């Protein structure tokens, strides 16, 4: 039984190390999320510019489709996020763009 305080100490130390590691990971996750958001914005900007300059009278429905086909949202709600399955918001937005293209 004499060893018990020592074991508790060791466990306490191990626990503290785990907590430190969790803190580090949380920080890393936050940094990655920030970077991810920044990159999403950048990609969004690229596609919107391309749409405006590349296709004179077409406001980029083609570009939106290609981005959508690559597996990303193009809707306002989730722009640039990875897409799982179809998204009605994306469809609505691209259709609006295509109708404008046709007119
Ligand atoms: Zn969407």
SS summary, helix count: 3
Name the poorly predicted regions. none
Number of domains as seen in the coordinates: 1
Residues in helix, %: over 70%
Bound small molecules, deduplicated: zinc ion
Summing up helix and strand content along with how strands pair, one would put the structural category as mainly alpha
Task: Tell me the series of helices and strands, N- to C-terminal.
Answer: HHH
Strand residue content: under 5%
Main beta-sheet annotation: none
Q: What Rg is obtained from the alpha carbons, in whole angstroms?
A: 24 Å
Descriptive overview:
This protein is mostly helical and 103 residues long. The chain has one domain (4-102). It is 73% helix and 0% strand. It is built from three helices and no strands. The chain has helices at residues 4-54, 61-69, 88-102. The longest helix has 51 residues, at 4-54. The chain is rod-shaped and about 80 Å long. Bound molecules: zinc ion (ZN). Zinc ion (ZN) is lined by residues 73, 75, 77-78, 87, 89-90. One of its GO terms (molecular function) is metal ion binding. Pfam families: YabA.
Feature tags:
YabA, mainly alpha, metal-binding, DNA replication inhibitor, coiled coil, single chain, 103 residues, rod-shaped, 3 helices, binds zinc ion
At a glance:
This protein has three helices and no strands. It is an all-alpha fold and 103 residues long.
Topology, pairings included?
Elements: H1 4-54, H2 61-69, H3 88-102
Helix pairs in contact: 1-2, 2-3
This protein binds zinc ion.
Pfam family, one: YabA
GO biological process, one term: DNA replication
Keywords: Coiled coil, Cytoplasm, DNA replication, DNA replication inhibitor, Metal-binding, Zinc
